[in-house]
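Posting for a labmate who doesn't have an account.
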Amino acid sequence: MSRTLGLDEARRIALAAQGFAARRPGLTGEARIRRLIERLGLLQIDSVNVLVRAHYLPLFSRLGSYDRTILDRLAAHHDRPVRPAGRRLFEYWGHEASLLPVAAQPLLRWRMARARSGKGVWQGVRAVAEARPDLVARIRDEIQDRGPLAAGELTAPEKGQGGWWGWSDSKTALEWLFWTGEITAAGRRGFERVYDLTERVLPPEIVHAATPDPAEAATKLTAHAARALGIATAGDLRDYWRLPVDLASIALARLVEAGDLVPVSVEGWRPQAYLVRDAVLPRKVTARALLVPFDPLIFERSRTERLFGFRYRIEIYTPAHKRLHGYYVLPFLLGDRLAARVDLKAERATGCLLVRSAHLEPQSEPDATAAALAQELVALAGWLGLSQVRVEPDNPFDRLLRTALAPLA
């Protein structure tokens, strides 16, 4: 008979696996940041900058205040060139577009190969590549001769019809080359990717590393996902790296056969769960963290609902009058529960962290949640270089939050 775990135990295992069971360190340097990124496996990238770019916040959520220029340096998100031997992170499709440790690149070459055959690629990107192979070849040759280059630096860029996210044909061709692994991001200027040939960006030992067969790569990726999740369903494991069903099934069977994953039941879960063989089950979790919508703890929404009883949808593309909770809403983790959610905006011109809405979750204690959330908002504002926190709306929980913030101002 399989072991049965209570839902509270599953939550604590998941939180420990994601790095929320340990106290935040007083001082965070490059080594600790690198260890956490390797533990998570990826930091998802997103263009929304209403608060802070998405890849920065998961580190703050777990480590507290840290110097963002360290991550910029690791990811080459600055104007200074990074020699291949010194590169620690690269960009590619992990969960979605992600920052990944360079050691993951060989494990994702099967995805690049599938892209070259037209599989797993956005339709608009594939369509331009199929219709304009001459353009793709010309852009690759130009990057080889002149790189690194941003899209706007290409010679006589093709304008196209603007039908794919408003991208030109040249930009779409760049994304095809990126997807197939021929080029990668040498860095970013602001948020604009600068592209170069992959062999000129990655360390030589990565470029020349053997390419594992797809099933072996998927097994290693699934094992990494399992360690990052602690306990998960087959769907959770597959989603972490967005694996195709065929490879995910092979990987799961191999890991179960090897004893690395143990089938278990979780109270209230209908799907079969799998527990990492050496998963940590802390007696208590005392975390306090705001979670970006793309945090790996919560980016699989059905898992978030199973673990926390927390239905979460990002409402950026929902018309304002139809939003339930706000534009850029961050769940608030307190202990081992998601206790509240807040819609936040960094008003950089006024030095203010604006709380545009705050919602207390059912079963959360109002005063304790408001007090803890106030402390976390002040910490977040300080890390972002903002001098104040302002609560905009006026309902009972907002008033509690405003009261809790007053002595911290």
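Reply:
Got it, the structure tokens are right above this. Residues 86 and 203 are 7 Å apart (CA to CA).
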